[in-house]
Structures are given as structure tokens and as C-alpha cells.
Amino acid sequence: MHALPYWRLSGYYFFYFAFLGAFSPFFGLYLQSIEFSAWDIGLLMSQMQLMRLLGPYVWGWLADRYGSQVPIIRLAALASGLGFISFFWWQRLPLMLVAMAVLAFFWSAALPLVESLTFDHLREERGRYSRIRLWGSIGFIVAVLATGALLDHVPASGVLWVCAAILLGILVCALGLPEVGSLPGGRAPVAVGEILRQPRVRFLLAACFAMSVAHGPFYVFFSIHLAEHGYDRSATGVLWSLGVLAEIAVFMAMARLGRRYSLRTILRVAFAAAVLRFLLMGWGMDSLALAVVVQLLHGLTFGAYHAAAITAINLWFPGSAQARGQALYSSLSFGAGGLLGALISGYTWSAWGAGWTFSLAALAALAGYALIAHGVPAEITVDAAKRQKSADPVQ
Q1: What is the pTM of this model?
Q2: Can you tell me the distance from the alpha carbon of 128 to that of 253, in angstroms, rounded to the nearest whole number?
Q3: Residue-wise pLDDT tens digits, 13-24
Q4: Environment class of 270 (CB within 10 Å of its CB; exposed 0-12, middle 13-18, buried 19+)
Q5: How far apart are CA 214 and CA 345, in angstroms?
């Protein structure tokens, strides 16, 4: 019987998303403190999305080609940490662009491979994925609260030390990740092109792209947006963590929700919630109550959305295509979509203001809703999709 390495996988997710909890909300504030413009900040932060567009498929192809994810995950942890420490010395835009690209190119390699590794370890217990992934959300909360509280008492450059320590934790966890060994039935060769010709796959990936476009201004400018409305850094950390608490609650419920509702239903609810969330984010942040509502909706706009989308990707990219499927999901959504959202918001933030920037985000989420409603089939449950996969994996 295969023993699930629950805590080693959970530990990796904890530190990986703890890095995001320190980096995403507060690195933009650090850049602002060294007098970078909104365009410069958007350009720098967009490197994370740019490399997530370029990098994951290369790493996913290598993992599928050689049948091993763990060595690449370990290399990525080491190289991304080495890229990050250059921020301690470099404060000029061209040099920081290079450092950010190195960090992002290797850092982006890891998550799709860890997702694939996790599903390989889970085998037929895919409903347990959310129980492992929620430790990433816990790591995010710990990091965002601790970093926000710390930065109320130290200069904004303190975020560099926090991120460097977390990247060291990622490396330690990567060294402890186990390979899967042989899978039942092995990994039959599967042509990714055949899978991509399925309309359901194309519509899902297009909708995921739209959702990441919608989240682009949130990840780049939300903390700055809150600061402009008078929220201090501790309050910013609390609001970020509130969103992730909602995400954890959804992850805990996803196994039950996945048995009761179709993937399409879950995704439609998530995209509808995103439309509302970004409109409120753009026009309602003077109200603390609305700010709380905005962050609670993160449980749907990321938690439910991501769990449903990644389950569909895992089901529809079987066998030897699995790592490339996860990489395509990462590249086209968090990579291409996030890059476009970050670049557009870097321009519109200064030219049009926060309200219209987040209104554009809501419009992107609405486009994603239409794609899901039109192109993703109404499978009854995740279990039904699994049975369909077993019968015809590349229909």
C-alpha cells in the first residue's frame, strides 16, 4: 500500500505560499519606498507572471520526459533563492529586472511539478488534495500577518530578510520531498495536442487566463490601494489573511462540494463572485465592512476556482501528459493572464485610477464566466468525471 507523505508535501506548500504571503502584499511597498513609479512596480512585478508564462512548460516537459519531478523542484528552490538575494544589493531598475527574471524563472518551475507530484501520491484519493493544499494557505496567513506586523516597526526593506528566510525553508522542504515510485499501470504516452483539441479544455484554459487577468491588479496594487485609503500595514496583513482564511474554509469543504456539484457549477459561482469582488474593490474600500466582504470573496475567487480548475486539468491530462497539463494551466493563467493584468494595471492605475482599474478586472472575470458557461460540460460530480476519464481519457 502506498503511504502518502502528507506532512512533507504539506510543509512544502506551507513555505511556498508563505513566500507569496510576504512577497505579494509587501514587495510592492518596498519598491515604492525606494521611489519606483507605478509603471516600474507593475513592470517588475510582472516578471513573476512573464516567467510563469515561459518557464513551467519547459520544466513540465522535462519532468514528463524523464519521469521525475523532484530533482527539478530541488534545483528550482536553490536557484530562485540565489536569484532573490541579489535584491539586497541591487536597487536600479535594469538590474532588478534581471534579478526578478532569474527568481521567477526558477521559482515558477516548482508549483506545477509539486501539484503533479501531489496528485501522483494521492492516486485515486484526489479529494484529499485540498487538505494538503490548505497548508499553503496557512503559510500565507502566517507570513502576511507576521510581515505586516514587522513592517510597522522596521523599514520596508525588512521584507527582503523575511522572504530570504522563507526561501531557505522552501529549499529545506524540497530536499525532503519523496519521489512517487512506480504508478499502477505506469504512465502511458499521451499526445498533449489531442487533449488541447477538446473544446472543454480550450474553454477552461481561456477562462483561467481571464481569471488571472482579473487578479493582476489585485496582486500588484491591493496593498498600495489599502494604504491610500488609510489602512496601516498591520491592517493590510489582517485583510490579506482574512481572504486566505476564507480560502482555507473552501478547501476544507471542497471534497464534499465536489461530490455534490459539478465542476462547471463551482466555476460559475467563482467567476460570478469575482465580478462582484473587483467592483467592490475598486469603489468600496472606504468602508471597512466592504473591505471585509471583498476579502471573504477570495474563498470563491481563488479557493473554489483553483480547486475545481486544477482537478479538471488533472482529470483531462492523464498519464505522461500530467506535468505538462499542470504547466499549461500555470503558464496560460498565472503566467500569461497575470502578466497581462499586471501590465495593464501598471498603466491604468496612474492614468485612470483604482476604481476603473478594478472595473476592468471585473470585466475580465465576466468574460471568464461566459467561457465557462458556454464551453465547460456539466458533469454531475468530480467522481463522475473520474469515471469518464477511466473510460475515455482523451475524448
Answers
A1: 0.75
A2: 11
A3: 999 999 988 998
A4: buried
A5: 10
